[in-house]
Amino acid sequence: MTERIIRIATALIRDADGKILLVRKRGTRAFMQPGGKIDPGETPLQALLRELQEEIALHLKPADLVDLGTFAAPAANEPGFTVEAALFAVTRTVSPSVQAEIEEAAWVDPADPGTIVLAPLTRDYVLPLCAALNAEGPMAETDCGDVLTRLQNPL
Question: Which of 43, 68, 105, 131 has a CA-to-CA distance to 114 between 20 and 30 Å?
């Protein structure tokens, strides 16, 4: 049987108020983190740096990102597939600009995303992570790993 996994790299981008940047690709309904597919020969970090530049005009360096781990969820736009997502936190303030295949971007409160359609990865992993981070108060993105561990392994 053919493996039905799509390997992607995505960015967790929060603003000073704890809102998360989500994007919607042209011709789709679900909002998700910026990022995209990892090309052959690319590392997840290389793929993410390329995708952020292409999609939202962010020119980041590897030092601007913290690896939060890899997560799997049903693909939002490709039925029957699973995304295996390398998730990275962006550690500096950014000003994204929608371009390429991105139709729309929104800063969303992770505790109350409203009525927008969310990709399963965003809904099941990223928003709970952000809500937990915001509930703990101001903290460095490098502390995300501890929060993720607690979310995945509740006491």
Answer: 68
